[in-house]
Design brief:
By secondary structure, the protein is α+β, with helices and mostly antiparallel strands. The protein has helices spanning 21-38, 64-72, 134-137, 140-146; strands at residues 48-56, 61-63, 80-89, 92-100, 108-117, 120-130. A six-stranded mixed sheet has the order 2-1-6-5-4-3. Residues 1-17 have low confidence and may be disordered.
């Protein structure tokens, strides 16, 4: 098996920020708890840096304004979220969750990774998978092997 750690080679920790892992985790947890509990997208805005960038697993990225608009479009009042893990490592905070709207199917499993600098979220990555499709993706490499990839 070959793996490569692109973002943090050699397990270097970000020392540029004076904010601790505990502070970063608390900032992310408070922001997401408030968003989930109240649906108040505006409460997120001051926690994001002006140059915030959100990345999706399909390779697309969006600015702070575009991402906040996308979050506003989610029916947050109906959304249910189970947070399974929140982990902090240096300037990164990772959250693993399941999200669904009752009556609209099993929902999605998601992993969000947030990078913070001086108490502000500067970057976010989101990886989501429909829960109903998860079993089909367990052996994704088999199809690739059959196709000679």
């Amino acid at each position: 098996m070959k793996s490569e750690f692109i973002d943090n080679p050699g397990d270097r920790r970000n020392t540029a920020s004076m904010t601790t892992e505990t502070d970063n985790r608390s900032i992310v947890e408070q922001a997401l708890a408030q968003l989930i509990a109240t649906g108040d997208v505006e409460a997120l805005e001051p926690l994001l840096s002006d140059d915030f960038v959100h990345h999706r697993s399909d390779g697309t990225s969006s600015t702070k304004a575009v991402w906040l608009a996308a979050v506003r479009a989610v029916p947050l009042a109906d959304l249910r979220v189970e947070v399974h893990h929140v982990l902090a490592d240096g300037d990164h905070v990772m959250m693993h969750s399941r999200r669904w709207i009752p009556g609209a199917g099993p929902g999605i499993a998601g992993v969000d990774i947030w990078r913070l600098v001086d108490g502000l979220i500067v970057e976010g990555w989101e990886i989501i998978e429909p829960v109903a499709d998860a079993a089909a993706h367990v052996v994704w490499w088999e199809e690739a092997a059959l196709n000679g990839n």
